[in-house]
Design goal:
The chain has about 200 residues and is an all-alpha fold. The protein folds into 2 domains: about 110 residues, no CATH class; about 80 residues, no CATH class. Helices cover about 80% and strands about 0% of the residues. It contains 6 helices and no strands. Helix 5 crosses helix 6. The longest helix has about 35 residues. The relative contact order is 0.08.
């Protein structure tokens, strides 16, 4: 078990350095592209031609999103860099979460069926809490509940939120049912895990 965790940790270190290197390279490329787009470099020089031929097609989706949001096309390289950095943080966070799940599963498997059952119950409640969080955040940024990105969260939590909405008083535009549901899930998790 320790060998798997050590290998995973070493892989995570390599992944962090790889994303750091990609971030530095992306910063340099985006900086040069920004210089070419803002005409701080000769627009007919070799560097500007290279940026228009090689870098700009990669940044085209980011540029379209920036222009739709009312921004300037010249700021697309910096938003592209933000996308790379946030993407790296998300990937590293997900790999770290996978490491934690793997370590928990290996530890529970080594201790027997009782710990495996306790772990499965804990994972179920954590999944429901994450679904509640995704549902709340998606309502703040106005993502459709029918979107493939959040539909699973609505399907996983509606059974708990619908009765709470009927019981709780309305507070204007605020829906308190996700907060109450979160605390109910925490209490249920403690009670159920305590049975093991």
């Amino acid at each position: 078990m320790n060998g798997v965790v050590v290998a995973f940790d070493q892989g995570l270190i390599v992944l962090r350095y790889a994303f750091l290197g990609m971030g530095v390279i992306a910063a340099a490329i985006c900086g040069v592209d920004w210089l070419a787009r803002t005409r701080r470099l000769n627009p007919f020089g070799a560097v500007a031609r290279f940026c228009r031929a090689s870098v700009d097609p990669l940044l085209a989706p980011v540029e379209r999103a920036v222009v739709r949001a009312g921004g300037l096309p010249s700021s697309a390289p910096w938003w592209g860099l933000v996308t790379v950095v946030i993407g790296g943080i998300v990937v590293i966070t997900l790999v770290n979460a996978l490491r934690t799940l793997l370590f928990s599963a290996l530890f529970a498997a080594s201790n027997g069926p009782r710990d495996i059952a306790r772990l499965l119950v804990a994972w179920t409640f954590e999944f429901l809490q994450v679904a509640l969080l995704v549902r709340v955040l998606s309502s703040w940024v106005r993502v459709s509940p029918y979107s493939a990105w959040v539909r699973w969260a609505y399907a996983a939590t509606e059974w708990l939120l619908r009765p709470l909405r009927q019981i709780l008083p309305t507070m204007g535009p605020f829906d308190l049912s996700p907060i109450v549901a979160y605390f109910i899930l925490m209490l249920l998790e403690r009670a159920v895990v305590g049975l093991f």
